[in-house]
Write a structure and sequence with these properties.
It comes from Paenibacillus crassostreae. By secondary structure, the chain is mainly alpha-helical. Helix content is about 70%, strand content about 0%. It has a two-stranded antiparallel sheet.
Length: about 280
Amino acid sequence: MIKARKAARYKSIAIQLLYVALGIVVSLPIIYAFFTSFLKPADILTYPPRLFPNYIYMQNYYDALQMTQLLRFILNSLIIAVVASFFRIVIGSLAAYAFAFFNFKGKQFLFFIVLGTMMIHPDTVIVTNYLTVSRMGLVNTYSGMVIIFLVSAFNIFMMRQYFMTVSHELRDAAYVDGVGNFTFFYKILMPLSKPVLAVVFISSFINMWNQYMWPLLVTNRDEMRPVQVGITLLNYAEGVMYGPTMAATIIVLIPSIFIFLIFRKQLMGDISAGALKG
């Protein structure tokens, strides 16, 4: 019995060490960018490579902010990421509510159509989307950058699966008490679904924050560029400015980390709930 406990303990420690090692490997590019952002230009491409700076060199951050409109790019990305995430939650949760709680003709067929759109790669429709947005006069606007991301089939599917875990007897009891469909959705179902809403918001925010190709197509004015496009303005034909580029990379990571920290409790709640259900 004691041997079995020791074996289980050693196994648990080994698994945790493996996870820590994998986390370090995955984080290595960020760690490298962080320390490189504090290196002087002459120390970045030395051989053997130098990772840790001798002292904190902040000029790279100053150059990154002075050479590009980095703060404007961050504001642009924040606007499109927050707006798209908000609409994805609103539209997706309403659709998921209908698929999870209502019975109507063609429900399964409509749901399969929604799932079927997940098999269409976004790049295959990017030209037609651009032509549509261009004809609508939305080039160089926030609406043009956001409009094709307002609905996500995967988010609808994720929320529908979560809503199906909520007891229908709860809705029936609410009906008996005179609670209507929208009141049940807004005051009962949504508060119960905070974990999945947090997951949808975080995934949507990061997805929009990292968008590159579509904003590159629908914007041609520098002040309308999001961060992922704007950061490339630090590259010149004569060469790449590694220090300011790494500094800008670290700066644009801050909002994503901030969003994760805000919704961390809800996210961990979802993971714990999933583990208990499993």
